[in-house]
Design goal:
The complex is a heterodimer of chains A (614) and B (431). In chain A, 36% of the residues lie in helices and 18% in strands. Chain A contains 22 helices and 22 strands. In chain A, strands 2, 3, 4, 5, 10 and 18 form a 6-stranded mixed β-sheet that branches. Chain A has a 5-stranded antiparallel β-sheet with strand order 12-11-22-21-20, with helices on both faces. In chain A, a hairpin with a 7-residue loop joins strand 20 and strand 21. In chain A, helix 10 packs antiparallel against helix 21 and helix 13 crosses helix 15. Chain A starts with a helix and ends in an 18-residue tail after the last helix. Chain B folds into 2 domains: 328 residues, no CATH class; 56 residues, no CATH class. In chain B, strands 1-2-3 form a 3-stranded antiparallel β-sheet, with helices on one face. The chains are: A alpha+beta (614), B mainly alpha (431). Chains A and B meet through helix 1 and helix 2 of A and helix 8, helix 13, helix 14, helix 15 and helix 16 of B.
Chain lengths: 614, 431
Amino acid sequence: MKENRILIVQFVIFLVAAVFLAKLFYIQVIDTSYRDEANHNVIQRIIEYPYRGIISDRNGKLLVANTAVYDLMVIPKKVKINGDKNRLCELLGISPEDFDNRLALAKKYSFVKSSIFFEQMSEVKFGRIQDLLSDFPGFYVQARTVRNYPQAVGANALGYIGEISKEKIELVGKDNYKSGDYIGISGVEAFYEKQLRGVRGVRYVLVNVKGEEKGRFKNGQYDTASVPGKDIVASLDLDLQLYAEKLMRNKIGSIVAIEPSTGEILAFVSAPTYDPNLLTGEDFSKNFVTLSRDSLKPLFNRALMAQYPPGSIFKTINALYALQNRIIGTSTVFPCNRGIIACHGHHTSADFRTSIQYSCNPYYWNVYKKIIQRGRHSNPFIDARLSYEHWREQVLKFGLGTKTGIDLPNEKKGIVVSSNYYNKVYGENRWQFSTIYSLGIGQGELGMTPIQMANLAAIFANRGYYYSPHLVKAIGDSAQALPQYYEKHETGIDKEYYDAVVDGMEMVVRAGTGFLARSKESVACGKTGTVENPHGADHSVFIGFAPKENPKIAIAVVVENSGFGAEWAAPISGLLFAKYLNYTLEKNWIENYILNRDFIRNPAKPKPKSRKRG
Amino acid sequence: MISLETRQSLNQRAGSEVDWPTVGIYLFLVTWGWLNIFAAVYDPELEQSIFDLNLNSGKQLLWIGTAVFLFGFIMLIDYRFWESFAYYIYTAIILLLIGVLIGGKVVAGSKSWIQIGSFALQPSEFAKFATSLAVAMHVSSANVKLENFKSLVSTGFIIAMPALLILLQNDTGSTLVFSSLLLVLFREGMNPVPLAFGIFCVALFILALIFNKFILIISLGILTILIILFSRQIRRRFGFITLAFVAYLFSVVVIFSVDYFVNNILQPHQQNRIKALINPDADPLGYGWNVTQSKIAIGSGGFFGKGFLEGTQTKFDFVPEQHTDFIFCTIGEEWGWAGSLILIGAFILLFIRLIYLAERQRSKFARIYGYCVLSIMFFHFTINIGMTIGLFPVIGIPLPFFSYGGSSLWSFTILLSIFLNLDANRKNILG
């Protein structure tokens, strides 16, 4: 009996050993999750943020640079308050209640993952709290770069960077961004995000249970170095841009200036604008709120997104179409019948050139009538539709009604409605010239963005083609712009007709509505526009280019609710021509006149309406 | 011709009867333990010497040195001393235990230490071998037969007294050690039924903690019915059926009482340890932390381990109490399954050797004492390693010869060396 008991005792001992060895075998050899957990404990992944590419103007002057700032990060699980909390709060500039709130927020986000406790401390602030941090395990500092704008110019074109939203992370992939990373949100910063951001680097370090760094994991075998972003050369001319912004101060509208031979944008202004340094650094959130609540909407990029009826500048397109399709000739004359439609100036009739010079409305009423009543069909309604569709096809070739392809996000494509629109509104075969006659003078169902207007000016400068307007002329080492900007877009109208229209445009400045744009050295070419709108006084619009031969700059200026095109947009264009080409403006009082006019505090009074047919 | 007595004393002095295999395993465990304590306190950034007295490894070396002397010293004591003074030693320890309750220091929640001058003494450690001596003394006496109920009670009393006093100190771990002596009683003829019954209850208890109670009760019911149906061969069927039925009812009661026991009798930190055992992932950063980190450290060791001083969980301090209760993690992480095999193997060798030595004793006292040594060590071994791999709740039980600590090393050394002393003189003892 007792032998059995001895055996049982031995059996129990062996049984225990066997159970242990079996369980150990399972967790040590078979189940690999423990090894992963061990690594997870010990290995910390530290992201190295790459240097973001800087942006300079076409002459190499710095527009957007990087500054180092420091985010104070926290891992709630590891937090211990071993030091003077009040002192830390004091140095950070927050109250102890705020401190607790932030910590609670971090805990809610994740108890074990790191999150931002205090954003974007300046180098100075960081220096002050650095010593204190050793008393606060669980807190650490992550260095980052934010943007600064030495010239404080070009905010709408350059855009800004900010924290990436959750939706955006889902879209562009978690490999490239994590919560809290910066991404370009508007402007060039957004469009060229991939080029500017570079590639993140990763460092794997070993940490002990307190989170203190204890060395590199596997000697840095798995580390990857960060790759800096590509520097960008913007096509903007800093001096021109500064001057254009200055001229548009206290006004609402936009200026876009293009180099016609390349499509490079020399100046890009949406007014009112803001100091880009406001949307960077510690005060980003606060300033963003202020800016987005501003009733004048400085964050709204008018040059890109405002769609205005073009007004008289559109006559140039109708003129070209009519000439190309042999509807009129350069010697065609129409009487200036102000009974049909109002007009200005001393002429009683106009030939082709003077129709442009004085912007004769009845002339273009007649031209458009001929355009729409082409006699393609016996039924006048069908004739109107067919003629309209043919005309519209040509209009689109000028870059209207479609996106120009500028390198900015959220471009609006303008408005050139299809015949289906009229079918819906008036009924099929229920509309004809008398319904849509205002299109002849650029009013009605038409919309152009200032970019499209400037692009139109460039088309005339080039006598028949354009390169898509773009803000960036060179990316990184390649020193090339994106490939689509080297593509020539033809409008399909003969050069001789362009010459005819351009001659008219020269007369506009020399002796016509655009006379305030004249410089002593050379005559520019252009076309004024005075755009009716339901919000108040007319918009003052001007498109033009200079000099007439081998033009170097094409421009579009829109000043909202200000008056005649001749009054404001034309002289502003003249000043910009003079600035860029180093000319002297003929009338030297113009600059002060423009600078002193404040349309925001002192809006223009709308002129009495007298254009519609009586 | 040398006289019998001279030869005896020569033998005794020469130590030729000392069981060297056991001594060998002892030294192996103690040395390897010392190395692992160094690994547990190792900080890769500092220049550390394993001998540095400021580190636990240096201190342990001191304890090892003194323990070896103690070993030798005990070996030289006359073997008859133990049997003669067993009860005196036992009484002295009981008095010390009472003394601790009155004027002791509280350390880590339990009042187990007495301060004498600049020395701190932990009587509960020494109660182990003292009780073993007393039990061996009592059970080996002529009128005690463990088959009898009265003998069981008297023996139980000897075991229960120190256990109770230690329980009052709030040291649950050390209290439980005394239950290991049941193994001795089993070997010496105790009726296995109450033992089996006790194991049955404990098993039920554990099952009730892990599984849903209603499922358990239904399953047990089905099992009972099946047993009744398939037991036609057993005589006195009626009595058997009633017994099965009663057993089933009793099980149900136990199952339901588990909750009451856990929530009302156990202290909160003990409740947490049970919870940590059942489901450590429920609160991996709170009460589950020790077990989770321990399993991670051991589990990440792989087959061959990460290498001495290369254990990341060990050297970066992820496992709490790694130099004491969780010392096995060092083996698991740095020496892998292979190392675990060697360690477990060494202990098993020791245990089997102790059984062999105990069985070859002519004196009942020596044999019983030997089994006490075995049981106590086996208990520590099982609970400690089981704790680190998540099979037992965390209780403060050290791994013999391995865990850091002077008191425990000394007490185990004394426990073992007394037996080796008895064994070396087994031929002189008259059965």
